[in-house]
Write a structure and sequence with these properties.
With 85 residues, the chain is of the alpha+beta class. Helix content is 19%, strand content 29%. It contains 2 helices and 4 strands. The strands form 2 sheets. A two-stranded antiparallel sheet has the order 1-4. A two-stranded antiparallel ribbon has the order 2-3. It is elongated, with a radius of gyration of 15 Å. The two termini are 30 Å apart.
Length: 85
Amino acid sequence: MKAYHYLIKGPIITEKTHALREAANKIEIRKAIEDIFKVKVLGVNTIHFKGKKKKMGKTMGVRPDWKKAVVTLAPGEKIAGFEAL
């Protein structure tokens, strides 16, 4: 069985993710959520964000790209401790 805990930092929607977490696809994200939180997932949508350009003195830099996942749970399902989100 694959260890999914490295994929999920927490159910914070705007949290930047680590390079290993960005490599996760929708199927791995679905299995990780169902395995860790013991809930039924209806759908997973992923969004890729490009890093913003930032000026540092005279040079231009770029923040790293990152990925966000929006997980839809089945009706009546809740993740304990995060009902308010």
